[in-house]
Amino acid sequence: MAETEGNNTLARKLVRKMVKDRKKHNAVVDRLEKRNKTLELEIASLKKAESENSQKYSELLKGNRVLVQQKKDLSERNQTLEWKMAELERRIPGAVKELQDIQPHTRSLICKRCHKRRIACDGGYSCAQCAVDGLDCEYVKCRRFDNMKYGRKGCSNAACTQVHDEKGVGLD
Ligand SMILES: [Zn+2]
Ligand SMILES: [Zn+2]
Ligand SMILES: [Zn+2]
């Protein structure tokens, strides 16, 4: 009888230990699963970044190819220009120097109508296009340039197509 009771106590102890161990194991499994999920998320975001990077890389490569082509075109055009200049110099000695002495192009203005229609404007007043159409030719005053009046920075855009202080464009 005493032996059976002892066995029962032992069995209960074992069960308690097993339950405790299972709880511990479950906790470890939980932790591992959580860690696994975090790793999966990290892997997913790395994969995404990788595909984005490879896309960026291929875009850069494409841009580079375009640039290389443009550079080639430009150098070809430059070559042609040099040939033409040499030809001109051969025919009219001193012509090239004369051409080079001409002041570089000043800013070219674009009137409102030509700007809206996205067509070339000669910047005159009236411009040829508006004159042909028989309509008023108007120019926009550059607001950034006008800002100088208030002590602010003016217009630093060398290619600005609006009126700064030009006279004779209907704004003076
Ligand atoms: Zn125009
Ligand atoms: Zn015009
Ligand atoms: Zn301007």
Automatic annotation (TrEMBL):
<dbReference type="GO" id="GO:0000981">
    <property type="term" value="F:DNA-binding transcription factor activity, RNA polymerase II-specific"/>
</dbReference>
<dbReference type="GO" id="GO:0008270">
    <property type="term" value="F:zinc ion binding"/>
</dbReference>
<feature type="coiled-coil region">
    <location>
        <begin position="15"/>
        <end position="91"/>
    </location>
</feature>
<dbReference type="InterPro" id="IPR001138">
    <property type="entry name" value="Zn2Cys6_DnaBD"/>
</dbReference>
<dbReference type="InterPro" id="IPR036864">
    <property type="entry name" value="Zn2-C6_fun-type_DNA-bd_sf"/>
</dbReference>
<protein>
    <recommendedName>
        <fullName>Zn(2)-C6 fungal-type domain-containing protein</fullName>
    </recommendedName>
</protein>
<feature type="domain" description="Zn(2)-C6 fungal-type">
    <location>
        <begin position="110"/>
        <end position="139"/>
    </location>
</feature>
<dbReference type="Pfam" id="PF00172">
    <property type="entry name" value="Zn_clus"/>
</dbReference>
<keyword id="KW-0539">Nucleus</keyword>
<keyword id="KW-0175">Coiled coil</keyword>
